Amino acid sequence: MASKRSGTLYLGVTNDIARRVYEHKSKQNVGFTSRYGVDRLVWYEPFADIRDAIDREKVLKKWRRAWKITLIEGTNPEWKDLYEGLA
């Protein structure tokens, strides 16, 4: 998730991406994402096994920002909010 292209990036793991993005958009949880305005889903990877998702999250959190931007722009070069396509 992102606030804007040059803004804050956030990544996490969930078992219900539509619900979780909605929570971020409606600022239901006070914390990092609401504080920094992170409310746009710009990239995601589906996993069948939560352990695989957690392992991938740990890897990505160690990546440099530039690498994450390259990953996002590989599938979403316009940084469109992908939330609408989830429903």
Q: How would you describe this structure to a colleague?
A:
The chain is mainly alpha-helical and 87 residues long. The chain is 41% helix and 0% strand. The chain contains four helices and no strands. It starts with 16 loop residues before the first helix and ends in a 12-residue tail after the last helix.
Short précis:
This protein is 41% helix and 0% strand.
Sequence stretches where pLDDT stays below 50 over 5 or more residues: none
* Count of individual beta strands: 0
Number of domains: 1
Q: Determine the oligomeric state from the structure.
A: single chain
CA gyration radius, whole angstroms: 12 Å
Structural class: mainly alpha
Order of H and E elements:
HHHH
**Spatial gap, N to C terminus:** 17 Å
Strand content: under 5%
Write down the overall geometry. globular
Largest sheet: none
User: What number is the mean pLDDT?
Assistant: 95
Number of helical segments? 4
Assign a percent range to the helix content.
40-55%
